[in-house]
Amino acid sequence: MNHQDVLDRFKEINVTDLFGTKKEVKELPNVIRENETIMYATSGFMENNTWLITCTDKRVLFLDKGMIYGLKQVEIPIEKINSVSHKKGLMFGTVIIHHGSDHMEINQINKATLNPLVEAINNEIENQKNKKDDKPYQSKEFSFSVADEIIKFKKLYDEGIITEGEFQEKKKELLES
């Protein structure tokens, strides 16, 4: 991903406030991983500096590229986020991301970009939960359906409807699929 790809993605997802984060936006392509998608971004105030806050499908990134000290980068993996809370003021808002026993507070987020940021983070949290929930369910469903089929064929064998060879062949076929 290059700088133009980032700008195109920002336009696509309607990123409207990048106040004071021009250097961070230029640095973002070096930080985004190959298999990662930007879901939303905005600027906010943290540790007495303006930061670029970027939600991806894998993590929430906080970037602050200073003139002298280089790049400050903080990231929170989506699966580590417990909850997101926010409050709105007249022009700006605050987002608090709770992760583990800690939290990150980002202030002076443009009121218009506050809800899209929170929604993007919450959507990715939900997506991560759904991915985790889907895997065990699918494997349980698969193993029960295979077991059920074997039981059905065993009954057919016990009742003399199919031969032992036919039962063994079907059982092997089901276990290999």
Structure overview:
The longest helix is centred in the C-terminal third of the chain and has 48 residues, at 111-158. Residues 137-143 have low confidence and may be disordered. The strands form two sheets. The chain has a four-stranded antiparallel β-sheet with strand order 1-2-3-4. The protein has 177 residues and is of the alpha+beta class. It has helices spanning 3-12, 22-31, 111-158, 164-176; strands at residues 38-46, 49-56, 59-65, 71-77, 81-88, 92-99, 102-110. β2 and β3 (59-65) form a beta hairpin.
Task: Offer a few descriptive terms.
177 residues, alpha+beta, PH-domain like, 3-stranded antiparallel sheet, 4 helices
Write the layout of secondary structure elements.
Blueprint lengths: L2 H10 L9 H10 L6 E9 L2 E8 L2 E7 L5 E7 L3 E8 L3 E8 L2 E9 H48 L5 H13 L1
Antiparallel strand pairs: 1-2, 2-3, 3-4, 5-6, 6-7
Helix pairs in contact: 1-2, 3-4
InterPro entries: SHOCT, YokE-like_PH
Protein name: YokE-like PH domain-containing protein
Organism: Lentibacillus populi
Count of alpha/pi helices: 4
Point out poorly predicted stretches.
137-143
- Percent strand equals 25-35%
Distance between the termini: 39 Å
- The count of DSSP E runs of length 2 or more, i.e. the number of strands, is 7
Average of per-residue pLDDT values: 88
The helix/strand order is HHEEEEEEEHH
How many distinct domains? Answer: 2
Structural class of the helix and strand makeup?
alpha+beta
CATH superfamily of the largest domain: Pleckstrin-homology domain (PH domain)/Phosphotyrosine-binding domain (PTB)
Q: Would you state the CATH class of the largest domain?
A: Mainly Beta
The strands making up the biggest β-sheet line up spatially as: 1-2-3-4
Envelope shape? elongated
